[in-house]
Each structure stands twice: as structure tokens, then as C-alpha cells.
Amino acid sequence: MKTRAYLALGLVTAALAGCNGHGEEGGEAAAVRPVLTQVVAPKDSITFGPFAGTIEPRYQAQLGFQIPGRMVARDVTVGDLVTRGQRLAALDTIVTRFDLTRAEADLADAKAQAENAEAAESRTRRLMSGNAVSQATLDQAVAKRETARARVDQAMASLQKARDQMGYTELKAEFDGVVTQRLAEVGQVLSAGQGVVTVARPDVREAVVDIPEAHAGALPADGVFTVALQSAPELTARGRVREIAPLAESGTRSKRIRITLDDPGPAFRLGATINVSLMRKVPPTVRLPASALLEDGARRSVWVVSPDGKSVSRRDVTVAAARDNAEDGRVAVVDGLKAGERVVVAGVHVLKEGQAVRLTDGAV
Questions:
Q1: Strand pairing of 195-200 and 177-182?
Q2: How far is CA 18 from CA 4, 23, 24, 27, in A?
Q3: Could you read off the pLDDT of 344-356 as tens digits, one per residue?
Q4: Per-residue model confidence as pLDDT tens digits over 311-350
Q5: Torsion angle defined by CA atoms of residues 75, 80, 83 and 89, in that order, rounded to the nearest 10 degrees
Q6: Residue 222 has what DSSP assignment?
Q7: What whole-number distance in Å separates Cα of residue 298 and Cα of residue 146?
Q8: pLDDT at 211 over 90
Q9: Cβ atoms of residues 327 and 320 within 8 Å
Q10: Does residue 242 contact residue 249 with C-beta atoms inside 8 Å?
């Protein structure tokens, strides 16, 4: 009886061991990994930007007095509209008025000296005709007359300069525009040429934006940008690149781009904040997160989900040039995928060929 009992126990133990081993193998075969996927949707255009910028005038000038002096009046401030010939500021005229008075006096003295020299030269000629004086005396009289005339011309030039200096005590607008900057205050002593105000012409406006150096070199020469107001994105204008700064800014490694606007509306005022973007046509490409790409030397591939959504297979793809893959951390696949297919975009390094998967993004 005992022998039969031991035999029965051994058979039961072996059967249990066999069941456990079979269950483990079945568990491995049935292991399913959840995956995050993206549906392949090729695009034939990409958006360059948007980049933030401002509306600035194409033409502006920093105006200052042509003579030194103390500023006693400033008639405009930032934002004021000015017309050609309008007074913007004025200097103290006391010193220049003294210079004008002295120049007038010098001219009167020079004219008197010239009249006296001409009379002396005339008398000397009459005496010379009677042989009362020598030729040398006549020559001296003629020289004095010429010197006096030259001093009159000099005094007249000095007077004209003094009158011009009086005119320079008022700073006037050279063209119709708007004041964009104030650089000096009343009571300040200014040197000649020192800036007082900056006046801009609002009729010719352009968009100014800083673009990363890597993108600036890829700008198409004939690209038409779309410029939209940040405060009212529905208001847009179009423009073309007029100038690209030759050097990048040392801190941000960006280049300043100036875009000429085509007939901008009145809403595009000077100083307005804008967004600048460019739509470019490209060969059909698929934008995928960089995490979806498997790289093995020169080989690049992705995991494609089967039509029933239950397994994956590895497929080689062709990726665009490196410069086109620097946009938002995504890569551009130009060949190897079809519209509507699903590509695994996370956890690609733990998958195997034919791996059973489960979609976690709600797809069926």
C-alpha cells in the first residue's frame, strides 16, 4: 500500500511540474508590449517659423545741432508727428547774437577802411601826375586799397557765417515723419552734431526679425514671408527679404533680417510686435519624433505596426539631410513609409521583429 501511495504522489508532483513549465512558456509567448504610435501623414510643405519681430522704419535720421550750445527748448517728444521745416528744438542765442553783432561791426569798420584807402590812392595818383610823389608811393597806396577791399570781403563772409550760426540755433525737421527717440533734455549743454531726437519716415515700413544663424543660410532668395500682428493674428501682410546681416549676434548666434512689406495696412504701426513665417514647398516627407528612429551605422529604420495592430516589423527608411531635421527635434523621412501606416515613436530599442504589441493611443 505504501508503495502505491509513493507512486501516486510522484505522478502528481511530475504532473504539477509539467503544468508550471508549460505555463511559463505560454506566458512568454503571450507577452504584449504597449506602444505609442503615430499615423504616417506625408506633407508637401513646411512652415519656416514663426519668429517674433517688430515693425521698424526703413529710413530714419538722428538729428542734432550744427553748433555747440545750451538747449533751451524741445518742442517734440516720442510719438509726435512732425512736418518738413517744423522746429524741433532750440539753443540759447546769446552767444551767437554777440557773434553776429561783432561781425556787423567788423564789416562796417572794413568798409570805412576801404573807402579811406581808395581816397588815398586817388590823391596819390593826382600827385603822381604832377611828379610830386614817387612811383613807390603810388604803389603803396594801391596795395593798401587792395588790402582794404580784401578785408571787406572777409568781413562780409564772417557776417554771413554769423547769420547762419543764428539759424543753426533752431533744429528743424528735414522731412515729414514721426519722432521715435529723444536723446537730449532742456538745459543740457550739447556739442556740435550731438543727437537730440530721431525722426523716422513712416511711409516705408519693414519687418525686422532675428533668425537663428543655421536657418538664415537656408532662406530662399524669392521667398514671400507672411507677417502677422501678434495683437491681431488675422491681420497679415506679405514681404520679401531686403537685407540679411552679414554677421551673427555673438550672444544668440542669430542674424537680423529686414523684410520689405508690400502695401501694409495702417494697423502695422511702427513698433508693433509681429510674427514672421514662411511656407515652403518640399518633396513629400513624413515628420517623426527623433525617438522613432533606429540607427545602426548607416542604416536607419523604424518599427511599423501591422495592419491588425497586434505586431511590429522593422523597416528601413531614407532620412532627409541633416539641416532639415533640426526643426523641433523631429526627423524628416522621405522614403520607406506609406500614408496611413502606424509607426512606433517611443521605446523602439526594446522591441523585436514580430513583437506582439498593444496600442496605447486609443487606436484600434
A1: antiparallel
A2: 21, 9, 10, 14
A3: 988 888 888 888 8
A4: 899 998 888 765 454 455 678 888 888 888 899 988 888 8
A5: 20
A6: T
A7: 95
A8: no
A9: no
A10: no
CA distances from residue 59 to 87, 205, 255, 270, 340 in whole angstroms, order as listed: 20, 8, 20, 12, 52
User: Range(s) for CATH 2.40.50.100 in the chain?
Assistant: 64-91+169-200
This prediction's pTM = 0.56
**In the chain, % of residues over pLDDT 70:** 87
Rounded to the nearest angstrom, the gap between the alpha carbon of residue 230 and the centroid of all alpha carbons in its chain is 16
Q: What is the pLDDT of residue 361?
A: 66
Q: In sequence order, which ranges of the chain are alpha helices (DSSP H)?
A: 2-29, 94-129, 135-167, 213-216
CATH of 31-43+284-359, one of 2.40.420.20, 2.40.160.20, 1.10.220.10, 1.10.10.1100: 2.40.420.20
* pLDDT tens per residue across span 276-314: 988 777 678 888 888 888 888 888 899 999 988 888 999
Beta-bridge partners for 330: 289
Distance, in Å, from the CA atom of 295 to the CA atom of 289, rounded to the nearest integer, reads 14
Counted residue by residue, the chain has a size of 364
